[in-house]
Amino acid sequence: MDMTTPGTAYSFGLDTFGDRNADAGGRPLSHAQTIRNVAEEGVFAEQAGVDFFGIGEHHTDYFPMPAGDVVLAAIAARTERIRLGSAVTVLSSDDPVRVFQRYSTLNAISHGRAEVILGRGSSVESFPLFGYDLADYEELFEEKAALFAELLNGKPVTWSGKTRAALTDQDVVPHTESGPFPAWIGVGGNPGSVVRAARLGFGLALAIIGGPPARFAPYSQLFHEALEKFGRPPLPVMVHSPGHVAATDAQAKAEFWPRWREVISLVAAERGFPVPTEQSFEAETGPRGALYVGSPETVARKIAANLRTLGATRFDLKYGVPGMTHEQLMTGIGLYGGTVIPRVRELLATAAA
Fold first, then answer.
1. Distance (Å, rounded) from C-alpha 170 to C-alpha 143?
2. Which pTM value belongs to this model?
3. Phi, psi dihedral angles at 115 (to 5 degrees)
C-alpha cells in the first residue's frame, strides 16, 4: 500500500546510542573518546545536509551515553541549522520535570532546535541503576508521559500520581520562547503505546529494528484514527531503523555485519532477540528487511519505499554499531547527507507526481 500524499514535506535524521568506537585494529576506544567522536559526528551531520541529529540514552560499556543532552548542547554550540534531540530518553526511570528542563535548556541554547523522543525503555539497564522496579514498567511510563504532556503546555502545572511528588500550580522553568518543542513517543510494536501517543498529543516514532517494516503500517493507521477520535489535529509519524552507508553494498555489509553480530549476540538473551546469522542478515538488509545497509542508491530506495508504505514523513537512520571506527561512521554520514537524502527526495517526488 502506498500512503504517499502529494506535497508532503519530508525530513531525514541520524541517531546514535553513543556506540563505542574501535580503532583500525579493532581495539575499543575509551568512553571519553567515543563521546567526543559523537560530538564531531553531530557537527559534521549539519555540514553534510542532515535535518536532525539524535542521541539515545544508554548506560552500558558498549553504549556509554547516559547524558546525551550534554553532548547535544556541545553540538548546538557549534551548529546553526540542524535539529537536535533524544533518541530516546528513558522517561520511565527519569523525572519528567528534569527531562523537560534539560531539553527546554537545550532549546534555548540552540535557538529553538530541540526535540525529545520519549520511551518506556526497551533497554532496561537504567531501572536497577536508578532504583526502579520493572514490575512498575507500564505505570511509570503512563504517569510520567502524562505529566510531560502537561509540562509542554508551558503553564503552571498541578499534578498528582504515584511515581513522583505532587505539583500544585508549579511554574517550571526555563520557559520556551515560541511554544512547545516537538515531542514524540517511541513505539516498538505495542498498539497501546500508539494510542497513548495520540491521546497525549505526541508524534509517533516507529522503532523498527527487525522484520518487514510493512507490518508497522497498521500502527500508522491506528495512530491517525486515534488522533481523530481524541479530537487532536494531525501529527507526524517517523521511522527509526539501524543501518550503515558505504560506497558499495559489499563494503557496507562487510563493515557492519561482524559488529552487528557481536552486539546483537551480546544482548540477545536480555532483549529476547534471536542471534543473527548470515542468512538472517541478508534478509534484513534486503528490500523487505529492517536494516538499511548498503550503497547510497540501495539505502535511498529502501527509505523511500518504506516512507510511502508507512505514511511517515521522517526517517532517522540509527547509524553505526559498537566496534566500528569513527572514520567509517564519518564516511557514512557524508554519504547519507550528501547522496542518500537528495536521492530519497527525488524518488518521493517522482512517486507523488
1. 17
2. 0.95
3. -140, 165
